[in-house]
Amino acid sequence: MEPIAIVGIDCRFPGASDTRAYWELLMRSGDGVGEVPRLRWNAEDFHSAAGAPGRTNTTKGGFVSDPDAFDNEFFTISPREAGAMDPQQRLLLQSAWRAVEDAGVAPQTLAGSPTGVFVGIMGNEWAQLHLTDYDHVTAQIGSGNGYCMTANRISYHLDLKGPSLAVDTACSSSLVAVHLAANALLSEECDIALAGGVNVALTPALSIFYTQAGLSAPDGRCKPFSAQADGIGRGEGVGVVVLRRLKDALADGQRVYAVLRGTAVNQDGRSNGLTAPNRWAQQDVLAAAYRRAGVEPSDVTFVEGHGTGTALGDMMEVKALGHHHASRTGKPLALGSVKGNLGHTEGAAGIAGLIKVALSLHHRTVPASRFAAKENPGLKLREHGIRLLKAPLRLPAHGVVAGLSSFGMGGTNAHAVLESAPPAAERPADEPGGIGTPVFTLTAPNAPALRRNLLAQADTVERGRQPVGALAWTSNRVKSGHRYRFATGAADTAELADLLRRAAADDTVLARLAAQPASRPEPAFLYTGQGSQYPRMTAGLYRDSALYRGYLDEADAALTPHTGRSVRDLILEGDADVHLTRWTQPALFAVGYALGRTFEALGVRPTALLGHSVGEYAAAVLAGALPLDGAARLIAARGALMQQLPEGGGMLAVRAPHEELAARVADEPLVGVAAVNGPQATVLSGDLGVLERIDAELTAEGVRTRALQVSHAFHSPLMEPMLAEFAALADEIGGDRPRIPVYSTVRGRLLEDEPMDGAYWLEHISAPVLFADATRALLDDGATHTVEIGPRPVLLGMARTLGGAPAQVVPVPDEHADGRQLADAVAELYRGGVDPDWDAVYAPRDKAAQPLAPYVFDDRHRYWAAHTPSRGAAPAPVEAVAEPAPAVTDDEPVHPAVAVLGVSRGRAEGPVARAALEAVGQVGGYPPEELTPDLRLYEDLGFDSVMVMELKSRLEERLTGLGSLTVQDLLPRLSTIGDLVGFLHELDAAAPEPEERTA
User: Fold this and answer.
1) DSSP letter, residue 962
2) Which of 265, 384, 598, 895 sits at a 20 to 30 Å CA gap from 349?
3) Which domain of life is it from (predicted)?
4) Residue ranges in the chain whose pLDDT is less than 70
């Protein structure tokens, strides 16, 4: 058999709320058995000690805590449907989600995939409680019960297209489900399989049966293979594992807990009783599993036995094992059973054992078996080559083979052979890569859920010793897909834990995350122009970020043949020559190119570009209008030619509108408007003497001015002497139409199918920089994010003064820029809806899956039967919804939700809105006061076709004057509650007047 990897695990058993707690329970030989909770039934009413026959001999068992808690909102399940669902379905849904996350996969990414679901289950007591109460059977009761629905519900909510089935072979159900899942993987019916089991004891029926059959332990505890063994103790639990073909798991770098080497299933046939174990069939299923696994019995180090703690069951199992292992001398087979810790979890017994074996192989330790201290001498374990595990068994790192048995009460037996995971691939050497600082991410469907999970992750980060880079990389892959997005850069785990806790405690942070746009992000890059340069600009980023370093080196290699000196070295050495125009312009181009390419490589792909003056050169390269080599030649020539121009020019920033200043300098041949940066931000450029005169005039008029520290009068008539030589080079290099929209600061608008060719770049030199017009157009066209691409923030402040559609500002480098600042920018973009290419953020050694805290579901909502079984009384079913609401009358007070809808109390509007709210609330089980007009019936309230049909009936009952309401008319108007109310108002307005209705 081709090996199958166990790559994800989640479970919940008595005394253990998750996988970590389960392992801790096993390692300390913990006891999960206690009194029967009153939520199930009043055990004293059925205890045989009361004197009446036919009841139980125990009031104890292994029970999970809070099985009534269910986060229905997370799965978009209405309260009414949740109340009708078998709690086994609810437990499996949540466990499946967490198991997929544990496999290093975001569950939403499996949607539409041929992932299989295989569930073992033997109890259906919820259906017994509810389907026999015929007066309360609803459509939700139907879909909320039935074995098939335990698997189908997972496939439905995760949108999985592979095989989906439930298996009932009694106590072996969940190991048989694993066997079927493995075979489905081998036959390529699916590439990923979820296999699990569940058991929730809702009635004392099986306890009574075990007592009557002489199988029930008086203390409610299984004591496997022990001299104290005196019967079965019932247990509960849920467990799910994620399975993949080993070769696929290794290729994807997934963590492998253990490997399934072979599985086998058979039947007792006609033996010594339908419910009695059969030694011969058990030894046959062992042989078949060993054969499929390609191992000899002597290769097996330990076996997790079925181990019910019954005299006959333990004896048959030991004899079957002894048939294969009796010849072992000096190295007996180690044997144990988790039922000593949990009780017999029935349909979940096989998965409980499988998870124990997988964790034992993963942690290289087999826990001691509870009750092993006094082994049953009648079993003659030593003669059968077997020993009980009285202390933990340490295992080698690799090559350990283990077995797992699970035998069904009706005779269906299963055995699995597992092996420790192969050696993990060596982590890559500390090769350069990424941006230098990891970005940890977490998403949740709402603010309270985000707070819960921030705290859970903080606890896990503090406990573990995993590298922060690998933790963050795992979080990017796994904890994604929900509306509320949290992200933060962090240098180490201590800082990360602190940031997670601080975010969870900060309501303003959570509110800001809630305000993120739900629409598709439209990021725009704004490239900074001359004046933003400084010595050693982005030197810290060059040091920390291999990604940025590579692109700056690339720009430098393109520039050096035309500058005669390394621009990169000039920048990094802190040379003051960076302020000379001949170096300023190519240096800014190199930084802009490297930053733009870095963001692009990080998956931040702009939908629009804008460059302020020389910033347009790097923007043109990213837009595909200029090749890197051509742009490097042009910018180097531009800077050098401008440096050669005579001195005597200057620039003056003026706090005045462009139109006023343009009129003032219209007759000045040596001065012109160089830039329009805002409504009151204009720059004049030209002859210094003329500028001084204009400056004096403006100052006298009370206009604020500021002389800029520049070497020449850029964007002025004084640039004319260099134009001819530059034009020849620009024509030679040419230019294309941008492939990414460019908002030109030469034209002050979006370029419309216009090439950024030689003529454009020639015009660029003397034309004013129309930054305000271009930026206003960009914002008005819907940019959601503005990212400044340059060595320090200059343009974003100016953009804020321009109005138009708001855009989220992303942090940009400054004098202290390093990998952390780039990580903060990526985090800000992610919080706003951008999905980065996370692999590009990290060095190769960080790309290793690490365990994260499983998702913490909301446990505030509780769903359970209204009455539990007691002596002399039949169980009453849960009431999923209230009784039908009374008819709406005009003199009823306005409901709060009606007021939210903005509907008046008038006869034509008030009753219609109230009726709609009450009908929606009754069908879904929602309190009407919680319903608001923006709630979506399908996505937010969990409506489906069955509920829509009932909604139609409820509306017709309440709004009799509307006439016939067809589903075809209703369906298109069910987007939101507000849409539904609007539709009903339209029908009401078109309906005949009251006297006509009765005519």
Assistant:
1) G
2) 384
3) Bacteria
4) 48-54, 425-430, 514-518, 803-807, 866-909, 962-963, 991-999
Sign of torsion, CA 145 151 152 154?
Answer: positive
Same domain as 716, residue 632: yes
Quote the CA–CA distance of 348 and 508 in Å, as a whole number.
Answer: 44
One-letter-per-residue 3-state SS of 870-919: ECCECCCCCCCCCCCCCCCCCCCCCCHHHHHCCCCCCCCCHHHHHHHHHH
Cβ atoms of 624 and 605 within 8 Å: the answer is no
SS (H, E, C) 925-957: CCCHHHCCCCCECCCCCCCCHHHHHHHHHHHHH
822 and 907 assigned to the same domain: no
Structural domain containing residue 960: 896-997
- Specify the residue for token string 């509650």: 977
DSSP string, 714-776: TTSGGGGGGHHHHHHHHHHH-----SS-BEETTTTEE--S----HHHHHHHHHS-B-HHHHHH
Cα–Cα dist 922/570, whole Å:
72
Say if residue 415 is in the same domain as residue 273.
Answer: yes
Q: Is residue 222 part of a domain?
A: yes
Structure-block tokens of residue 316: 């048959």
Distances (CA, A) of 446 to 73, 91, 827, 835: 10, 21, 19, 19
Spatial CB neighbours of 285, under 8 Å, sequence gap ≥ 6: 264, 265, 266, 405, 413, 414, 415
Alpha helix positions (H), 644-704: 658-664, 688-700
Same domain, 299 and 178: yes
What pLDDT, on a 0 to 100 scale, did the predictor assign at position 905?
A: 29
Question: pLDDT value at position 817?
Answer: 75
Extract the runs of DSSP E, i.e. beta strands, from 811-863.
Answer: none
Query: What is the value of pTM for the model shown?
Result: 0.88
C-alpha of 630 from chain center: 43
Locate all alpha helices (DSSP H) within 261-328, ordered by sequence: 279-293, 311-325
CATH, residue 760:
3.40.366.10
Q: Give the domain-ending residue among 807, 832, 857.
A: 832
Cα 238 to Cα 66: distance, rounded to the nearest angstrom: 13
**Predicted pLDDT of residue 30:** 96
- Taking residue 718's Cβ as centre, other Cβ atoms within 10 Å add up to 24
Separation CA 106–CA 103 (nearest Å):
9
Tokens of 957: 């009952």
Mark whether 903 and 768 lie in a shared domain: no
Q: Which CATH number characterizes residue 380's domain?
A: 3.40.47.10
| Distance in angstroms (rounded) separating the CA atoms of residues 865 and 726 | 84
Q: What are phi and psi for residue 401, nearest 5 degrees?
A: -110, 135
Please give the pLDDT value at position 594.
97
- 766, 793, 768, 796: which is closest to 783 by C-alpha? 796
Residue in this structure with the two tokens 């039949």, named with its chain if needed: 874
Question: Are 97 and 12 in the same domain?
Answer: yes
Q: 3-class DSSP state for residue 22?
A: helix
Residue 116 maps to a domain? yes
510 within a domain of the structure (yes/no): no
Q: Is residue 685 part of a domain?
A: no
**Same domain as 305, residue 228:** yes
Specify the pLDDT at position 949: 86
Whole-number pLDDT of residue 825: 92
∠ CA 229-230-236, nearest 5°, is: 90
Domains contained in the chain, number: 3
Distance separating alpha carbons of residues 192 and 242, to the nearest angstrom: 7
Q: Give Rg (Cα) of the chain.
A: 36
How does DSSP assign 497-547, residue by residue? HHHHHHHHH-HHHHHHHHTS--SPP-EEEEE--TT---TTTTHHHHHH-HH
Quick one: pLDDT at residue 797? 85
CATH number (domain holding residue 945): 1.10.1200.10
The residue out of 395, 420, 445 marking a domain boundary is 420
Same domain, 936 and 818: no
